[in-house]
Design a protein that fits this description.
The protein has about 180 residues and is mostly beta strands. It is built from no helices and 19 strands.
């Protein structure tokens, strides 16, 4: 299973607290109320709390925008562009921002999936994952091309992505089932 997506085609959901919006890439399995893993791009436009997700591991990566400070009793983290930060969904996180920002989020149900997020500039591959083009152009081994603000998610098939330009950067999420 392999699905391409583009930012401008992702459905938008406004946050209940009015602090931003989410564009969901995929909630897997599709249509299941209790996701095993979920990928999205969010725009944070005001200070406020993150929604709690017990039993979920989260990773957030600042894509664009101003300063973001995430605080909880357990940690304090200033997000910097393209530096993934992972944390448990149980933490009560409060976001403090200067201006507006956009981030990439991956959430995995701890008892069934694990994720690893990296920023790639060289050829990458995995059996399950999500990829988001941050800069330049990328191509799959089958010849499919992806450019900025485009991506792909896939399951149970080996997918390889290679940079096609010298400025190419890819947010690459490897997903693995917990056995």
């Amino acid at each position: 299973m392999r699905t391409r997506f583009a930012y401008d085609q992702l459905p938008v959901s406004r946050w209940r607290n009015g602090g931003g919006e989410t564009r969901e890439i995929v909630s897997y399995p599709p249509g299941d109320a209790q996701f095993a893993w979920r990928a999205s791009i969010a725009t944070i436009s005001a200070d406020g709390p993150f929604s709690p997700f017990p039993g979920i591991d989260r990773a957030i990566t600042l894509l664009h925008g101003d300063s973001v400070l995430l605080e909880s009793e357990q940690a304090q983290q200033r997000l910097t562009p393209l530096q993934p930060w992972a944390f448990p969904g149980e933490w009560a996180i409060e976001a403090k921002i200067s201006g507006s920002c956009q981030d990439f989020n991956i959430m995995t149900r701890r008892d069934s999936w694990r994720s690893a997020v990296s920023i790639a500039q060289e050829t990458v591959s995995s059996e399950n994952g999500v990829a988001w083009v941050v800069a330049g152009k990328w191509q799959t081994s089958a010849g499919e091309k992806l450019t900025v603000d485009q991506g792909m998610w896939w399951l149970d098939e080996k997918l390889q992505l290679a940079p096609q330009t010298s400025d190419a950067r890819l947010l690459f999420v490897t997903l693995n089932r917990v056995l």
